[in-house]
Design brief:
It is built from nine helices and four strands; from the N terminus they run αβαβαβαβααααα. With about 210 residues, it is mostly helical. Among the domains are: about 100 residues, no CATH class; about 35 residues, no CATH class.
């Protein structure tokens, strides 16, 4: 059970039920069952709603009376009268407030708030990791053409190996021809000659 894993030695049940013979007894019945079947020795059932005080404070209507056939009717009528009240008679916003207040009375709220802050910090850290991973995957996954994302190659590698660069579609063929002409002029200058027109046998351009 979750309660056993918590390491706590006391269990508090917050009960929400109708104000009628069975509703008044349901909390104690459940507590007794948990005590006997699961060995939870320290257990308390607290009626959160609907209570006689809430009926009076909010002037809740009653359209029914306790069933005389109920074995608990006599004791209920002696304590509360014959009228019974359904839990739904409480307005939703009032019921929500009642439940919140009941929870806060049995919890260590500073500890709860500290835990919530830790959860927020953990969530923010996980979100940052998710965004980083998503960006990395976006860069790595091929585009719709099936080719991997193109990256700009270093200028030095293009100058050294234009043939390999053009094979990888890194720049247009016109750029390849321009670089070839510049290399030919540079070589000619180093050898003391001049750049001349090249015949078909010396033209490095692909045909």
């Amino acid at each position: 059970m979750r309660f056993r894993r918590s390491g706590r030695d006391r269990l508090t049940l917050l009960v929400l039920s109708d104000l009628d013979p069975e509703g008044e007894n349901i909390g104690e019945t459940l507590a007794s069952s948990l005590r006997d079947e699961f060995g939870i020795r320290h257990i308390a059932a607290v009626k959160v709603a609907i209570t006689p005080e809430q009926v009076a404070r909010h002037r809740l209507p009653s359209s029914m009376t306790a069933k005389k056939t109920s074995s608990r009717a006599k004791g209920y009528i002696a304590k509360h009268g014959a009228a019974v009240y359904e839990l739904e008679a409480l307005p939703p916003d009032v019921l929500q407030q009642v439940i919140r207040q009941a929870i806060e009375t049995v919890l260590d709220m500073p500890l709860v708030r500290a835990e919530l802050e830790r959860e927020k910090a953990d969530a923010a850290g996980l979100d940052a990791i998710r965004r980083t991973a998503q960006a990395a995957l976006t860069d790595a996954i091929p585009d719709s053409s099936g080719r991997p994302p193109l990256t700009t190659p270093p200028a030095q590698s293009l100058a050294v190996s234009p043939t390999r660069a053009i094979e990888q579609n890194r720049f247009p063929s016109q750029e390849y021809h321009r670089m070839s002409d510049e290399r030919a002029r540079d070589n000619s200058g180093r050898n003391g000659g001049t750049a001349r027109g090249r015949g078909p046998s010396s033209d490095p351009r692909p045909t």
